[in-house]
């Protein structure tokens, strides 16, 4: 297995929203999260999606958020960035549970 040479790092956040949070509110939080790409220089891309698995192994996590950074240093710059901190202080209290994983995509050569 070969680690991607360009150093790209994915920051994955799995979210379980609290009961009572409307779909409209969730959409506003998603827009706020996506807007961080415009505010935090080290954040290069953002994608999100909802669980569509038929396995029912999601453990209540319904939403997946993926942020792309050019390096682990980029994540280190993102975490304390004032716009990220401000958004996190609004977003995280809406979650019943959260799981975050950072990883470097690795290609498999067969």
UniProtKB/TrEMBL annotation:
<dbReference type="InterPro" id="IPR013097">
    <property type="entry name" value="Dabb"/>
</dbReference>
<protein>
    <recommendedName>
        <fullName>Stress-response A/B barrel domain-containing protein</fullName>
    </recommendedName>
</protein>
<dbReference type="InterPro" id="IPR044662">
    <property type="entry name" value="HS1/DABB1-like"/>
</dbReference>
<dbReference type="Pfam" id="PF07876">
    <property type="entry name" value="Dabb"/>
</dbReference>
<comment type="subunit">
    <text>Homodimer.</text>
</comment>
<feature type="domain" description="Stress-response A/B barrel">
    <location>
        <begin position="9"/>
        <end position="103"/>
    </location>
</feature>
<dbReference type="InterPro" id="IPR011008">
    <property type="entry name" value="Dimeric_a/b-barrel"/>
</dbReference>
């Amino acid at each position: 297995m070969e680690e991607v040479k360009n150093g790209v790092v994915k920051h994955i956040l799995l979210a379980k929203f609290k009961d009572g949070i409307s779909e409209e509110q969730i959409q506003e939080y998603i827009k706020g999260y996506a807007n961080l790409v415009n505010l935090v220089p080290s954040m290069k891309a953002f994608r999100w999606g909802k669980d569509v698995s038929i396995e029912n192994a999601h453990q209540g996590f319904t939403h997946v958020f993926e942020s792309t950074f050019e390096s682990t240093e980029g994540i280190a710059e993102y975490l304390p960035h004032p716009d990220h901190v401000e958004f996190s202080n609004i977003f995280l209290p809406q979650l019943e549970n959260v799981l975050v994983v950072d990883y470097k995509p690795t290609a498999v050569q067969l």
